[in-house]
Q: What sequence folds into this?
């Protein structure tokens, strides 16, 4: 990471949305009666989470010229996330997500992203963003799913890397956002040579590599999402063995914490913090915010991932994503109450 002075510690790029979360917890989706309105989208959640931890953050996304866009921007401004680089796109709409909450393991999710404004991000929008003045850039896999966002994302990574910023990609696999889920892996593998740190769940790593075609099942003639019972360790090994492997691959493993693979056979295991799960959505984004926070402080991978695990553990006990991210003092107190970073 460059030692030159910067305007921002982190710029995140990609999805932003209004999130409507069921207020009736544990009921089937068809019986939901009301929703809480929050802000979401993986890069947006990470920007808010990192800001609450004390980092100077900005968001490169887009919203429509609509009241939902006003809602998203107002929240970000209150949080202190820089929004100067979030254009209004008359050609698109601010996206929405509707979520049911049936803990511990059912969270039915519906995306409303037809003509999503953030997928209209262009190379010009990237040029208007000071990627030469940030210590780190984080982008998401969903941003690669269609043009012009795909080219804009690739260009942003090129610019940030050339300026000496650390580049993170959250694999962020959403099968229904791709014309063919196999295209996700093709696009991610094209991006990874320019990335320093890749972050993803076990399923996302499998989708990115797809070393075994049987991981895909055909339903009504359409290719569906990868089967989660595949051999994730084989896919991790395949990614690390590739000539374009990132400096580090961080695999989020839910309640088991995270593993960090740093070149060769060096594997660092960072255990999680046991908590009672209320809602898992947003936990991975909170993890990424904590991990990037730790790395920005010069922490080693273990301590940084433990910070990420703590951020994720706090969020899963709460109702939503961005609105419920932990603050720096709160997260550090959470860790101290559970014996500190060491295990």
A:
């Amino acid at each position: 990471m460059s030692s030159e002075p910067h305007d921002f510690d982190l710029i995140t790029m990609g999805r932003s949305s209004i999130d409507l979360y069921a207020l009736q917890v544990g009921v089937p989706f068809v019986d939901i009666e009301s929703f809480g309105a929050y802000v979401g989208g993986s890069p947006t959640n990470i920007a808010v989470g990192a800001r609450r931890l004390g980092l100077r953050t900005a968001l490169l996304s887009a919203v429509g010229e609509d009241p939902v866009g006003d809602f998203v921007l107002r929240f970000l401004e209150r949080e202190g996330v820089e929004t100067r680089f979030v254009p209004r796109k008359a050609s698109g709409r601010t996206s929405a997500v509707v979520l049911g909450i049936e803990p511990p393991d059912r969270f039915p999710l519906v995306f409303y992203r037809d003509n999503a404004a953030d997928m209209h991000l262009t190379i010009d929008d990237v040029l208007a963003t000071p990627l030469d003045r940030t210590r780190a850039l984080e982008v998401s896999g969903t941003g690669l799913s269609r043009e012009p966002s795909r080219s804009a994302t690739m260009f942003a990574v090129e610019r940030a890397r050339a300026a000496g910023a650390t580049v993170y990609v959250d694999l962020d696999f959403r099968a229904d956002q791709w014309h063919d889920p196999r295209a996700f892996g093709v696009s991610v593998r094209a991006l990874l040579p320019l990335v320093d740190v890749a972050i993803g769940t076990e399923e996302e790593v499998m989708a990115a590599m797809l070393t075994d075609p049987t991981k895909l099942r055909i339903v009504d003639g359409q290719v569906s999402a990868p089967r989660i019972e595949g051999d994730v360790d084989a896919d991790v090994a395949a990614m690390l063995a590739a000539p374009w492997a990132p400096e580090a691959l961080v695999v989020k493993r839910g309640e088991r914490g995270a593993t960090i693979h740093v070149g060769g056979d060096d594997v660092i295991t960072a255990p999680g913090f046991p908590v009672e799960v209320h809602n898992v959505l947003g936990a991975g984004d909170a993890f990424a915010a904590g991990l990037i926070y730790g790395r920005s402080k010069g922490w080693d991978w273990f301590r940084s991932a433990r910070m990420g695990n703590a951020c994720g553990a706090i969020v899963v006990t709460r109702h939503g994503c961005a609105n419920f991210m932990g603050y720096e003092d709160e997260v550090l107190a959470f860790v101290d109450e559970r014996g500190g970073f060491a295990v």
